[in-house]
């Protein structure tokens, strides 16, 4: 399925805030001092290592906000793979404006492409099993929509976007409520009929209690592949199963082989290495 772009209305304020942070109180004093006001330039943004691209709309908007007349050609869109040397964007316009937008554009592109690449690495490692790789709420403040879009660009899927998406009863909720069943019953009585309820469980005993109370999904936290296989057997299709905890490219295949529906990993958004991209004037 083709990846849908995020609306500019959503992305533009984030990019604008990043530009304002960089421009500070006096603008780009370096470019303004050394480059004539009307000087034009053309450049390319290219990849310096293999990976998956995300964040092209952030870069496009950064250049266009600095110079509305700039021409930005997207050569590689979000979700496309690149090899070293592949051109991602071609930009032409006022030289000052291109240089003023360069760092913000690269910051977004390198980080978000890193998220997409990390996700794609897990997706590939989990094959041929059907488990889907999903992200978490462990995102950079202010960048959640962008990072979750980058996860989709890498072939993953999104967990909830915020605390209001769905009920996720975690270990501390259970401790504060007084037990698994009590927490589930209170949640069901409080939320609407379209809101799903997921419960985090650490043991098979907790899993059985959650299933008896009736839930839509179970988060199987830090279980071994053997425990996950047993848990999937106990669930027997009555709820969506999600594995979480210590998911890496080395462990994800064994986790996926257990038969779980979803595998969640926080590091693909909060700790993914950047993808090395560079901007070069022609």
Would you kindly provide a written description of the structure presented here, covering whatever features stand out?
By secondary structure, the protein is an alpha/beta fold. It has two domains: 8-115 and 273-281, Alpha-Beta Complex (Aldehyde Oxidoreductase, domain 3); 124-270, Aldolase class I (TIM Barrel, Alpha-Beta Barrel). 44% of the residues lie in helices and 19% in strands. It has eleven helices and twelve strands. It has helices at residues 8-23, 29-34, 56-66, 95-126, 144-153, 171-177, 180-190, 204-213, 225-235, 252-257, 267-270; strands at 40-47, 51-52, 71-74, 81-82, 87-94, 132-134, 167-169, 197-201, 217-221, 240-244, 262-264, 277-281. The strands form three sheets. It has a six-stranded parallel beta sheet. A four-stranded antiparallel beta sheet has the order 3-5-1-12, with helices on one face. α10 links the parallel β10 (240-244) and β11 (262-264). The model has no long low-confidence stretch (mean pLDDT 97).
What is the element layout, followed by pairings?
Blueprint lengths: L7 H16 L5 H6 L5 E8 L3 E2 L3 H11 L4 E4 L6 E2 L4 E8 H32 L5 E3 L9 H10 L13 E3 L1 H7 L2 H11 L6 E5 L2 H10 L3 E5 L3 H11 L4 E5 L7 H6 L4 E3 L2 H4 L6 E5 L1
Trace the largest sheet across and list its strands.
6-11-10-9-8-7
Indicate the radius of gyration in whole angstroms.
22 Å
* Secondary-structure element pattern, one letter each: HHEEHEEEHEHEHHEHEHEHEHE
What percentage of residues falls in helices of 4 or more residues?
40-55%
The CATH superfamily of the largest domain appears as Aldolase class I
**Average residue pLDDT:** 97
* Uncertain residue ranges: none
Number of helices: 11
Q: Biggest sheet: strands, sense, closure?
A: 6 strands, parallel
Question: What structural category arises from helix and sheet content?
Answer: alpha/beta
């Amino acid at each position: 399925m083709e990846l849908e772009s995020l609306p500019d209305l959503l992305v533009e304020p984030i990019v604008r805030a990043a530009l304002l942070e960089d421009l500070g109180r006096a603008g780009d004093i370096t470019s303004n001092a050394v480059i004539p006001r009307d000087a034009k330039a053309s450049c390319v943004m290219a990849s310096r290592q293999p990976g998956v691209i995300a964040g092209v709309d952030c870069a496009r908007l950064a250049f266009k906000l600095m110079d509305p007349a700039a021409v930005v050609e997207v050569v590689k869109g979000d979700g496309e793979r690149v090899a070293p040397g592949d051109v991602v964007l071609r930009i032409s316009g006022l030289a000052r404006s291109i240089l003023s937008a360069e760092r913000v554009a690269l910051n977004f592109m390198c980080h978000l492409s890193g998220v997409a690449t990390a996700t794609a690495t897990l997706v590939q490692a989990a094959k041929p099993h059907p488990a889907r790789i999903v992200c978490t709420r462990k995102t950079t403040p202010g960048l959640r929509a962008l990072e979750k879009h980058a996860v989709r660009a890498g072939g993953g899927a999104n967990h909830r976007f915020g605390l209001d998406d769905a009920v996720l009863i975690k270990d501390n909720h259970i401790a504060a409520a007084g037990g698994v069943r009590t927490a589930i019953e209170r949640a069901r009585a409080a939320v609407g009929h379209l809101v799903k309820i997921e419960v985090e469980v650490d043991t098979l005993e907790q899993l059985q209690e959650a299933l008896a109370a009736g839930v839509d999904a179970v988060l199987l936290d830090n279980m071994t592949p053997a425990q996950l296989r047993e848990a999937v057997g106990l669930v027997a299709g009555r709820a969506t199963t999600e594995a979480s905890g210590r998911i890496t490219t080395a462990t994800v295949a064994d986790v996926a082989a257990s038969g779980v529906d979803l595998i969640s990993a926080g590091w693909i958004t909060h700790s993914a290495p950047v993808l090395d991209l560079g901007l070069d004037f022609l």
